[in-house]
Amino acid sequence: MNVVTSAKIRRDLREELKNSFPNVNFLFFKNMQEAQEKLSHADILVTYGDDVDEKVLSEAARLKWIMVMAAGIEHLPFQAIKEKSIIVTNARGIHKIPMAEFTIGMMLSYAKNIRQLSKNQERHVWEQKLTFEELAGKKATIIGPGAIGSEIARLLKAFRMETTGVNTSGRPVEYIDHIYKITQVNEALQFADYVISVLPATSETYHLINKDHFKVMKKEAVFINVGRGTTVNQHDLYDALKNKELAHAILDVFEEEPLPKNHPFWEMDEVTITPHISALTNQYQPRAIDIFKENLYKYINKENDFINQIDLDRGY
């Protein structure tokens, strides 16, 4: 059995895999270009997902399983994968701790005016007449309260915040005080002080959040997107901020990445930009490899209950 990696895996984790599975032949590469010459031997491909296209699949004739070392799988050629009956799993769930911590950190940074404090320190300015807020007593609406959203809500409860969630079915979610179906999203948005989107990128979520929703939100509200950039109509968000329909936006993801240098968001005081790093942590790869190892045991033993197996019809 041959496992080919186009994802650059840490040395200690490569050794861990080889020691845990001595009968598996691991072929480690830094990228797909390096891995290409061995694709024809691959039974399993470990990738970050954005380097797999139909050409790769045609060269990997033996391929039975793709492990994506990320949550996002929107770049995969689903139809070709379905036609070849290839299993796809991803690393969904490993991001909840760093992304929840990141979200709370950015909320605290906004509430405590850290941006201005940093500017004042650079300028040697002692200024006490700044505006500071508390998270306590505020309301947060989380759009897409899955593993990440639920962890965000758990941390928000420690700050005495009221939590509302919006999902497809309206099913209850732990640490969420109130839950709404996506068809009731406006009701969930109108009283929120913070609106946090953790939506994945699917055909159903493309531009799901748009001007109609921004108009419903409070003018004092802060919009945070740590999900996927394509889920938000960025033009509508820009207009909402420019027209003072929202107080601020904290954006870690964008429709085009990297965000173009001439994009107006860069110049707006009402926007905080981070470069798609909310999930990054030194624990990222170890957690993803743990999922892969458990699934590899199942694969070898011909078990079918894989962790995070993707429904190729639904795209997640």
From TrEMBL:
Residues 8-303 form the D-isomer specific 2-hydroxyacid dehydrogenase catalytic domain. Gene3D superfamilies: NAD(P)-binding Rossmann-like Domain. Keywords: NAD, Oxidoreductase. Residues 104-278 form the D-isomer specific 2-hydroxyacid dehydrogenase NAD-binding domain. This is Phosphoglycerate dehydrogenase-like enzyme. The keyword Oxidoreductase applies. Belongs to the D-isomer specific 2-hydroxyacid dehydrogenase family. Transmembrane segments: none annotated. PANTHER family: 2-HACID_DH_C DOMAIN-CONTAINING PROTEIN, D-ISOMER SPECIFIC 2-HYDROXYACID DEHYDROGENASE NAD-BINDING DOMAIN-CONTAINING PROTEIN. Pfam families: 2-Hacid_dh, 2-Hacid_dh_C.
